[in-house]
Amino acid sequence: MSRKPIVVATLALMLFFASLAHAQDSGPYKILKIQLVGGDGGFDYVTADSEGRNLYVARSGPTGHIGVFNLDTLVQVGDIPGVSAHGGAVDTATGHGFATSKPVTMFDSKTFAVLKKIDVQGNPDGYVNDAYNHHFYILSHSEPNITVLDDKDGSILGTIDIGGAPEQAATDGHGKIYVDIEDKAAIAVIDANTMKIVGKYDVSSKGGGCAGLALDATNNILFASCRDKKNMIILSATDGHIITDLPIGNGSDGATFNPATMEAFSSQGDGTLTVVKEISPTNFSIEQTVPTPARAKVLTLDTKTNQILTITAEFGPVPAAPIPAVGATPPADGPPPTAPAWLRGPRAPMIPNSFQILVIGK
Q1: 205 Cβ contact partners less than 8 Å away, ≥ 6 residues apart
Q2: CB under 8 A, 24+ apart: contacts of 145-149
Q3: Is-contact 118 154, C-beta < 8 A?
Q4: Chain centroid to CA 165: how far?
Q5: Stretch 239-249: mean pLDDT, rounded?
Q6: Which three-class secondary structure state does DSSP give residue 24?
Q7: Where are the chain's structural domains?
Q8: Residue 23: predicted pLDDT
Q9: What angle do CA 331, 64, 309 make, to 5 degrees?
Q10: Model confidence over 251-264: pLDDT tens digits?
Q11: What is the mean pLDDT of the chain?
């Protein structure tokens, strides 16, 4: 087997590191490490288990699996084969993890053994685990938009329709779940006890296509990273009033908040990571824009080290778009017209063995 793809990917990483040497001097955050992992399959979400010191990386497709990596060394410590999923997370208290495959995969967070498969409706995509009552929320662009599982045994507790496509959710740890509705320029508020919508915040006056959502649970501040106007909309989680908005890069697909540093982060597919400083609950500013490899569009926070982790790969040229037949009806599924160009149309092929994990910190 030729080693050329591995060599090409390694050289690309070396050149990228060299190009960042000067750009990252302007702020406290920089890329500390790029771990070349390789392997086949697509990728979407990445999730850090800060207590268990593991990083969960789901790969999709015919060879789909969930790679488990040590958070401190990025050495692979486990694997869950035969699982094509968007992502996965664990509940430390129950020792159970769930992956948004279809059917959903429930696994042991210590041994990584599959415990059961759970048939759900919709198309599992995003997710959030709520330690408040040990429920796992599965997000789906098609109805039912949310399926709620019991972390203890994987039983289905109910479903919730929020009237649109959910992209990311955040929990306040006290009984409220917030979900950005990507195609409706709104954020749904869910009561974790009743599993019902108790509010919906309209953000259309400032933008839409919100795909990242983070929460400062102490001050009840939501950070919605949106694609339409390439901005982060900052609003009150208590009543939904918009405080301000700040510019970010193009193609955000994830956001997180670090209460230890009072900073919100938004990762964009255009090769930028935006750091927003919460100076006070009414005062926010762009602290830094960190250059990253392109398509590092999702992120996760390691609360022990205060480091951000993201994933991406190297890609070849975009193939030419096929010419549709006369009178052909375009497909109804796929990314919305408002999605950035790199999410629409033919996609560039991933260079074999170029998949990588990045660590960003001070």
Answers
A1: 242
A2: 146/179, 146/190, 147/104, 147/120, 147/121, 147/122, 148/195, 149/98, 149/104, 149/118
A3: yes
A4: 15
A5: 98
A6: helix
A7: 40-161
A8: 47
A9: 95
A10: 999 999 999 999 99
A11: 90
Contacts of 1 (CB under 8 A, 6+ apart): none
DSSP assignment string, 259-320: TTTTEEEEEETTTEEEEEEEEETTEEEEEEEEE--TT----EEETTTTEEEEEE--B-PPPP
CB neighbour burial string for 19-57, b if at least 16 within 10 angstroms, e if fewer: ebeeebeeeebbbeebbbbebebebbbbbbbeebebbbb
Q: Could you tell me the two tokens for 13?
A: 């990483």
Q: Phi and psi of 262, rounded to 5°?
A: 55, 50
Helices and strands in the chain: count of H runs, count of E runs: 1, 28
199 closest CA partner among 226, 218, 172: 172
Burial 237-258 (b: 16+ CB within 10 A, else e): beebebeebbebbebbbbbbbb
pTM as predicted:
0.88
Average pLDDT, stretch 156-182?
97
CA–CA dist 122, 89 (Å, integer): 19
Q: How many CB atoms lie under 10 A from the CB of residue 17?
A: 12
Hey, what are 103's tokens? 């059917």
pLDDT category at 335 given cuts 50, 70, 90 is low
- CATH code for residues 40-161: 2.130.10.10
Closest CA to 279 of 305, 295, 261, 299: 261
- Could you tell me if 344 and 336 are in contact, meaning their C-beta atoms sit under 8 angstroms apart? no
Q: What is the percent of the chain where pLDDT is above 70? A: 86
- DSSP summary character for residue 102: S
Beta-bridge partners for 242? 235
Handedness of CA 53, 82, 113, 136 (dihedral sign): positive
pLDDT of residue 26: 81
- According to DSSP, the residues that pair with 214 across neighbouring strands are 223
| Arithmetic mean of pLDDT, 195-217 | 97
